[in-house]
Amino acid sequence: MSIVHHHTDGDGWVECTCGLRHWGRYGAAGLMLVDAELGVLLQHRAHWSHHGGTWGVPGGARASGESGLSAALREAEEEAAVPAEAVRPRHAWVEDHGPWSYTTVVGSATRRFEARPSDPESLDITWVPIDEVPKRPLLPAFERMWPGIRDQAHRSLVLVVDTANVVGSRPDGWWRDRRGAATRLRDGLAELPPVPADRLDLPATMWWPEIIMVTEGAARGVPEADGVAVVEADGDGDDAIVRVVADVVATRPQDHVVTVTADRALQARIEDAGAGHVGPSVLRELLDAAE
Ligand SMILES: [Zn+2]
Predict the structure, then answer these.
(1) Which of 152, 179, 213 represents a domain boundary (last residue)?
(2) Contact, 79 vs 119, CB < 8 A?
């Protein structure tokens, strides 16, 4: 195993308007990995580092043009030997100071691996039971965000997409090829950027949802894609959507379930099933921005 210092063009200090100096010319990001049994993967920071001796999450300066997620995954791999493909990001918390920001990405481990200190910034990398996290001396920025993060640590966002309603929200000729239009929507959803939390009235700053598309009628036959499950309605599409929502609410009561539809009658049934809803424009804006 080689121990090396990693460098990016983001290395450097920012004199911030808050009166403090922060590390990372383009801001900084870290990964908080959560495992239902093991707890939270924390880094004991080397004494020579900024706020040395405290505990935080593996993280560091973002490179120019690098997203918070990409930086968090890269830093976790460099500092803690966390394989990026073993991380499912769920939500992120941005502490935004204007000239500088810190993005904490909260994700689940999708498989077991050996996390260990893999660069000199870590004295130790270890799983800490979630209720014991606040008993350790924490990195100040991490400590400030901890109560909110703790509350959402095990929660995911599930988006249930009323495919007919979202496809029908834009008159682009979808009626000539309903399955083709639904397939294009699926392709966009597979690449969906993180959803701003305030658009869904959720805590945190952004969410990477699990997506369930419900298709009906001539739009059926769309294959699933990475990150997008497809449920085909046997009969009425609304009935199928309500069944899917009720099933997720019952089996995963801790998670946020939001249905994407502008259909008022369906929205009322979704509320009765214990879930939220949002109009197609939220998805449309994200899909358009990603193109
Ligand atoms: Zn600041």
Answers:
(1) 152
(2) yes
- The reply to whether 257 and 285 lie within a common domain is yes
**What would the mean pLDDT of 31-42 be, rounded to a whole number?**
95
Q: Is 2 domain-assigned?
A: no
Record the pTM: 0.93
pLDDT of 168 reads 95
DSSP state letters, 91-140: EEEEEE-SS-EEEEEEEEESS-------STTEEEEEEE-GGGGGGS-B-H
Say whether pLDDT at 2 is over 70: no
pLDDT, tens digit, 9 for 90 and up, residues 238-272: 999 999 999 999 999 999 999 999 999 999 999 99
In a domain, 3, yes or no: no
CATH of the domain at 40: 3.90.79.10
Mean pLDDT for the chain overall:
94
Whether 1 is covered by a domain: the verdict is no
Q: How confident is the model at residue 118 (pLDDT cuts 50, 70, 90)?
A: confident
Q: What is the CA(19)–ligand 1 centre distance, in A?
A: 6
Question: Which of helix, strand or coil describes residue 218?
Answer: helix
Q: How many angstroms separate the alpha carbon of residue 76 from the centre of ligand 1?
A: 23
d(CA 50, CA 142): 13
Range of the domain at 197: 157-290
Q: Is residue 109 part of a domain?
A: yes
CA of 61 to the centre of ligand 1 (A): 14
Span from the CA of 53 to the centroid of ligand 1 (angstroms): 21
121 shares its domain with 142: yes
Beta pairing partners, 141: none
Residue 200 and residue 90 share a domain:
no
pLDDT of residue 242: 98
Residue 24 Cα to ligand 1 middle (Å): 11
